[in-house]
Amino acid sequence: MELIIALSAGLLGVVVAVFMANFVLKQPQGTKAVREISAAIKEGALAFLGREYRILAIFVVAVTIILGFVPLLGWWVALSFIFGAICSGLAGFIGMSIAIRSNSRTAAAVQHGLNHGLKVSFRAGAVMGMSVVGIGMLGLTALYFVFNGNADFTQIIPGFGFGASSVAIFARVGGGIYTKAADTGADIVGKVEENIPEDDPRNAAVIADFVGDNVGDVAGMGADLFESYVSSIIATSALATVAVMSPALEQALVPSQEAGWFLPLLVAAGGILASVVGIFVIRVGEKLEMTALLNALRRGTIVSSVLAAGFSYLAVWLLGADIRLFWAIIIGLIAGVLIGESTNFFTSYVYKPTLKVAEASQTGAGTNIIAGFGNGLLSVMPPVIFIAIAVIAAYKLGDVYGVAIAGVGMLSTLGIQDATDAYGPIADNAGGIVEMSGLPHEIRERTDALDSLGNTTAATGKGFAIGAAGLTSLALLFAYAETVGITAEGINLLQPEVLVGMFLGALLPAIFCALTMDAVGKTSFSIVNEVRRQFKEIPGLMDGTGKPEYAKCVDICTKDSINKMVLPGLITIVSPILVGFLLGPVALGGFLGGAVSTGLILAITFSNAGGSWDNAKKWIETGAYGGKGSVAHKAAVVGDTVGDPMKDTSGPALNIMIKLISIISVVLAPVIASFGGLF
Length: 679
What we know:
This protein has helices spanning 2-25, 32-69, 75-109, 114-147, 153-156, 158-193, 206-238, 240-244, 257-280, 290-319, 323-347, 352-360, 365-378, 381-411, 414-437, 441-484, 496-537, 550-564, 566-583, 585-621, 631-675. By secondary structure, the protein is mainly α. The chain has one domain.
C-alpha cells in the first residue's frame, strides 16, 4: 500500500504539471515583435541544451560501463545510475521547455493586470516544480518496485542519486557560466559604457542574456533540486537499519526495515499534495508593492508547510513509527522555512541589509562591493545556526536516521519552493521582451515588480536549496560511515588521515569556485569585446537604424560554457575517488566533513552577497539615490556584475558539489572499505 501511495503522489505531480502547462500554453503570445523575440530565445536555449545533453550522454554512458565492471557494484548499480541521469535531465528539460514558451505569454498577460501576469508566470514555474517532485517520486518508486527485497537494495538505489547529481553538476555549472557571462557582458557595455537601458534591443548580448536565464536558472536549478530531493530520500533509506535499532537511543524507531525505507517516500508524497494546494492559493492584487507580492508567495509556502506537517504525521502513524520521527520531520520543515526567511531578510530591498548596500553605492563601486560582501558573510550565521540546531535536535529524537528524515521534511514542499524559484527567470524574460518590443512604460513597471519579486524568490530558493544540501550531505555522510563501518568509538579525530582528509575537503570548494568564477570571467571578456565590436562596426546601431548580430553572442556563450563546464565537474567526481583509494575510508570521511562545512559557508556567502547586490541595484532603479544613470546606479551595476557569477554560478553549484561527492562516497563505500587505501 505504501508504494501505491507514493506512486499516486508521483502521478499527481506529473498530472498537475501537465495541467499547468496546458493553462500556460493556451494564453495569447502577444504582438508579432513579442513572438519574434521569444522565438529567438527559444531557439538559443534549445540549441544550448541539445549540445550540452550530447556531451552529458557520452559521459553518462562511459560511467555506466565503468560502474558495471567495478567489483562489488555491478550492472544493477550501473543501470540505477543511468536511470537517475535520465530522470534528472528530463526534469530540467521539461521545466525549461515551458519556461521558454511562457515568457511571451507573461509579457502579454501583464497587459491585462499584475495578478494575471503573476498567475501565468507562476504556473509556468510550477511546471518545473511539479515535474521535479513527480518524476523524482516516480523514479524512486520504480526502483523500490524492482529491487525491494533484494539484499543489495540499499547499495543499488544510491546509484540513482549518483546519476542525478552527475547531470546536475554539469547542468548547473554549464548553465551558470552561460547566463552570467551573457548578463555581465551586456551590463558592462550597455549600462556602464554606453549608458543605455537594461534589455535595450541595441545591445547584442541581450538575447544571450535571456537564453541564459532559462538554461541556467530553470534547467540548471531544476536538475539541482531534483538531485537534492532524491538524495535526501535515498540517504534516509540507506540508514533504515539504524531506525530498526538505534544504537544511540537503544530502541527501535520503526517496526521493520521496510518501514524505514517507506517513511521518507510517504513524507515526500504528502509534500507533493501539500505543494499542489499551496500553488493554487497564491494570488495578488494590482498594487505594485513588494510586500504584497512577497506575502502572496509566502502564503502559499506556509499553507504547504502546514499541510505537509499533517501528512507527515499520518505517514508516521500509518507505518507505526516512533512519534519522535514526526517531530524530527517538523524540525526539518521549520528549519527550511527559517532559512528561506533568513535569505529573504539579507537579500530583499524591503529590509535594511540590502538597503545599506544601496546606500553605500553613493560613494562608488568599492564601497558597494565591500558592503555587499560583508552582508553575504554575515548572512551565513542564521542558516548555519538553524542547521546546527536541526541536526542536534533531530539526532536526539531519532539518531542519524532522525537527521536524514529531517532533511526529507525540509524538502517535502519542494514542489512549491521550486515553483517560486523557476518563476523568477520567466518574469525576468518577460520584462526584457516588454522592453525590446517597445510596449508602454506602465507594462514594464508591472514586469519590473514581478522581476524584483523573482530576484527575491530566487535568492530564497537558493538559500533553501543550500540548507537542504547541508542536511542531505550530512545524512549521506552518516550513510557512508555506516556502510564502511566507521563509528565514533573507532575513529580518532587527530589521526593524520582524518586531518589530511579534512584539509583536502576544505580545499575542494575553493578550487571549484575559482574554476567557475574564472570561466565566467573569461567568457564575459569575449562577450564584452564582441558587443563593443558591434557598437563600433555596425552602422546606425546606436541610433536604432542598424540591427545587432544577436546570434554571435549566443554562439560564444554556448561554446565557452560547454567547454568550461567539464573541468569543475570532473574534479568534483574524481576527488573523492582519489582520496578514498589513496588514503582510505577514514580519510574520505574527513574529506567529506571538510568539503561540506566550507562548501556550505561559501555557498551561502556567494548566493546572498550576489542577491543583495542585485536587489540594491533594483532599489536604486526605483528612483533612490538619483535612480537610473546616477553615480550610485553605476556603482550598483558594478557590484551586481561581481555578484552575478557568485549567486548564479559558483554559489548554487557548490550545493550540488557537496552532495555529489557524498553520494559518490556512498556508492563506492563497499569498494573503498574492502580496498583500504594505498597509504
